[in-house]
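Input record, target 12 of the design panel.
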């Protein structure tokens, strides 16, 4: 895999992970909500104009373009497993930013993910 291909995949993963974190920050700012017929418009508008959610959606759009560029250079059987690195990044970032738990079981799973991605990219 060339340096450009690897960079595109890594950038795509980072943007996708950032989108998830921004969406979570946005929903934290909005708070718990239910979509009902009566509140779909007010809640939808609140979500649509929440800055973190706008940032998350923007990251998704850019990540899609970057990911397509990466897929044009790398077999999907190698590229797709790279997305699981996003789970590793999000688990650690969610622990740091949002105080979410990072248990021993999660850490062991993260170890398996890292090992698996390493093995797939080496094949």
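The sequence produced for target 12 reads:
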């Amino acid at each position: 895999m060339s340096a450009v291909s690897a960079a595109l995949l890594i950038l795509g993963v980072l943007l996708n992970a950032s989108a998830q974190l921004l969406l979570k920050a946005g929903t934290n700012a909005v708070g718990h909500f239910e979509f009902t017929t009566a509140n779909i418009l007010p809640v939808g508008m609140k979500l649509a104009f929440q800055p973190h959610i706008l940032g998350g959606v923007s990251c998704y759009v850019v990540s899609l373009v970057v990911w397509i560029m990466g897929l044009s250079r790398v077999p999907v059987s190698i590229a797709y497993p790279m997305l699981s690195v996003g789970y590793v990044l999000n688990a650690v970032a969610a622990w740091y930013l949002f105080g979410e738990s990072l248990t021993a079981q999660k850490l062991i799973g993260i170890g398996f993910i890292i090992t698996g991605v390493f093995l797939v990219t080496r094949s």
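The radius of gyration is 17 Å.
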